[in-house]
Request: fold
Amino acid sequence: MAVIVVGDLVTDVLVVRSSPLAAGSDTEATVRIGGGGQAANTAAWLAHAGSEVTLIAAVGDDPAGRERVAELTEQGVRCAVRHHAGAATGSIVVLTNADERTMITDRGAALLLDPQDVRAAVQAAPDAVHLHLSGYALLHAGSRPGGLAALEAARERGLTTSVDAASAAPLREVGEFLDLVRGIDLLFCNADEADVLAGPGDPGDQSRRLSAFAGTVVVKRGAHGSVWGSRDGTAHTSAAVRVPSLDPTGAGDAFAAGLLTAWLGGAGPGAALEAGAALGAAAVQRIGARP
Reply:
């Protein structure tokens, strides 16, 4: 099973703290530097789950960009990644503890996702059956044409498509996100993103409202499980897998990879949600966003 993932590949500066930030002073933490980016994380987890994966992304022509590509290649991801001269690979500072993470972002070369690069890479993956797009590509004007080109190229080839809504704060600023993704097969959003896109309320009602734009909507609710709602009236809920949490960074990306692997393999909604929950649980039990 071959999957194309399109979006961001960046450097994560992961700051794991065990106490609240001491404003204007020092806070003890563990700091780790490595690969991140919603699209890249999902691609890594898909490869971990056994899929053949191609990542389409943009990085700088710098040591960080080369390191990020090398990490993914080692994890079994085929990288159709352009190195842009004169641009810096994006970086994200992730402030995290066992319960939540907050991100400070410099998207850098990720904003240079080029529509021609995307179309060429989609055509160069003839065995692909599905395209998954990180919503971050649509939330910024620089990368939006590349993200839209990915969805257009997938439709031209008859691939199924999914999009992860990415992040609540920029969703509020963009406003037109649902119009940009109209007609996709599957939309992922967490509880905060569902509130932005569908208005506050019951996640089952939210998924049904959002199914006017996507054939199926999955609302990820962390420790409260997940909800599947489809345009045909199909509705399912799944409990979370209860495990000790070290770091939630990348858990949603792992969930998406687990669900997609099962769904593309023919699993029904309930089994797909359970597969997503299992991989998400694996993610929170380790430090960092990758398997």
The mean pLDDT is 94.
